[in-house]
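Invent a record, attention on C-alpha cells:
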Amino acid sequence: MDNSTFKELDTSTYMISPDENFALLAYDVQAIYRHSTRAKYKVVNLQNRNESSLQGPNGTEFQYVSWSPTYDGLVFVQNNDVYYRRNMNLQDVDAFRVTDTGVMDQIFNGVPDWVYEEEILSEDHALWWSPTGSYFLFASFNDTLVRNYHLTYYGSMTDQYVTDKKLLYPKAGTTNPVFSLHVFHTHSNKTINIEPPEDLKNIDHYFTTVTWADSERVLITWMNRFQNMTLYTICHAQNGSCYENYRYLATSGWCETPSAIVFKEDGSGYFTVLPMREGEAGYFRHVALVDAGNSVNIKSDNLGKRTFITSGQYDVIEIEKYDPKTALIYYLAYMAGDPTSRHVYKTSTREGDVNFLKPTCVSCTDPDTCDWVSASFSTKPDGEFYMLTCLGPSVPTYTMRSTATQSVISFEDNKEAADKLSTLALPRTKFLRIPLDDTNSMWAKLLLPEPLKEDEVIQYNMLTSVYGGPDSQKVSKAFSLGWEDYLASSHNIVIGYADPRGSSGRGDAWRHANYRHLGTTEVDDSIVAGRYFNSLKYIGDRTAIWGWSYGGYLTASVLGRGSEVFDCGMSVAPVTAWTYYDTVYTERYMGLPDENSEAYNYANVSRYAENFKKSKFMLVHGTGDDNVHFQNSAHLARALTEANVYFRSQFYTDQQHSINGGNSRTHLYNTLEDFLLNCFDGRSSRMDELNNPTVAKPTEKDVDNDE
C-alpha cells in the first residue's frame, strides 16, 4: 500500500496481521494518561486494498486493539470491556463479549487503572496473548473503593464553568484497587479464573508481570503490598491451576519488578534478573536461570532452583535475548566499576562450558563514541539480528548486527547532524568523583562552557540539575542536547550533575541507602555535591539548583535544610509530602504512613518553610497534573506564605506533569531562564529580549524528568 492513506489519516501508527492479509491504521489518537489512549482504526485489506473503519459494539473508538499472534483475529477493549473477534471475515456484530462488568472510571477489564498503568505495567493494556493465540490472559481492576482525587479543568475562555474530573488515585496508606486475573479460551469462548498464591490471598497484594512459558502455561509474578516479597507462580491455561515456582524476600530494601523474563525453548526454565550476594559488597542484580519443570503437576527437587549465569560487582539492567541454538544469552548491564557506561554482553548458559560466567561485551567497540547503548533483538526464537543504538557520548547511531556472523550494517549514522553540531560552541563534558567519606564517592558530571579554561582564574555561575529518585540516574555517557546545554552555550553557565546514594547501577547497598527514609541521604549528598562544585576554582559565588518531579522535591528539600549552599532554586511539579503521592511508588520506598509516620513527617518539605528565607525560590506546577497533584505545590505555597517567605510561582492552566501543551513548554523554559539570570546577575532575559528583538530564543527543549 502507498502512503496516501497514512497522509489522509495523518498517522504513522499501524499493525500488520500475522497472516499479512490486513493492516490496522490508528488515527484520531487521544492521550488519556502517560501510556493510555483512545483511537479510531482503519482496516486495510492488503490483498485487494479495500478500506473500512473498524467497528465495535460501541462505535469506532477503542481503548486497545491487538491482533492475535498467529491469525487475523482481534481482541479489543471498548468502554472498559473486552471483546474478541475470531477473524476479519466476520461481521462486526459477531465480536464475542468476553466481559460485561466494565464501568468507565470504575471497573476496568483488559486495560489498567491509573496506578497500575503508571507504576506497575507501564503499558496501555492489561492483556497478554499466548504464543499460539489459543488463549489470552487479562486483568480486571475494581476501583470502587479507591478514593477520588478531583482535578479541576478550566477549559477554554468560552467555558463559563470549570470541569471537575474525578481521578481514581490511591494515595499512600489508602485503599488500593482490587484486581483479578482471567484466561479466555479463544476456541470455546470460555473464561477461567487465576487465583493468587495462598500466602497473598488474605492480604493486599499486586501482580507485576505476565509471561507465557509456552502455549499452555503462563508465569505470573506477584508482590505483597509492602513490595518486599515477590512470588513467581506458573499456571495452566486450560484449568487455571497454579503452583509456586520461586519466591524472594528482601531483608533490607524492596523487591524490583522483574524486567523481561525469557523462557527456554522447551519451557523447562526461564531467565530472570535476581539479587546475588557479592561478599561484603552486598547484593547486585544478575541473570539467573530458574527451573520451571515441564508440567503443572511436576514433583522435582530442582523445581525453582536458581543458577546464576552472571556475577560480579555490577548490575544487570535487563535480559535482551536467549539463543537456543548456541545457548548464549544477551543482556544489558552497567560496566563493572563505572555506572556511567552500559553495554550489551553475551555469555554461555551451559554450566561447564568454557565461556560460562565469562561474559563478552558485544558493543564495546569504540568507547569514545559508543559507551551508552540500548538494543532491540529479533523476537523470533531463531532470529539472529538486532538493532544496536549507540546513545552516546557522540551523536546517536543505529546499526543492524548479526549474532551469527557479527556483521554490521549502518542503519543511520546521523553524520549530517554530527557535522553541524561540530561547528557549534557546545559545552564539553567532564566526569568526576565526589568523595562522601573514606570509602564512598558519588559519580558526577559537569557541562563546561566552551570559553572556560580550568587553569585560568575567570569564574562562572553554576546550576546543579538534580533528580535523585530511588534507582534513578543523571550521570551517564548518554548524548543529550537540551535546555541545560543551551544555558551553558548561551550564558556560559556551568551545569553540574551528581548521583547521590539511592541511585542506580551500584548494587543494592547503595540503591537502598534511603529505604524507608526518603528526603535524607539524597538531600545530604546533594548538599555535599553543591559544596564540592562551589570549591572548584572556576566556579563563582552565584550558584543555583533545579529539578523536575522528584528533582523538584529534592530541590525544595535542599533549600529547606537551610544549608545556604545554593543562592536560588527552581522546583517544577514537585512532590512536597509523600502522603500526597500514590500507594505503589510511595509505599515501595517508605512503607505505610501509619507505621512509618516519623519518616513521612520528616520528609514533608512544608515543615521547613522558614528556611526558604535563605534562598530565592521559584515554584512551578501544572494545575491538571494527574501524577504529582497541584495539591503538593498549593500546600508548600501556603506554608511559605505563612512563614512570610517571598518567592516566585508560576502555574500552567490544565497542564499535566510534563507541561508540554501549546506554548507551555517554551514559556516554562523562558520563565526559568529569566529567574536564573536574575538570580545570577540581577538581569532579566525577558527585558533583554524586549530591548533587543534579535536575541536568540530557546526552542522547546527535551528535558523532562517525570516520576
Notes: The two ends are 40 Å apart (CA to CA).
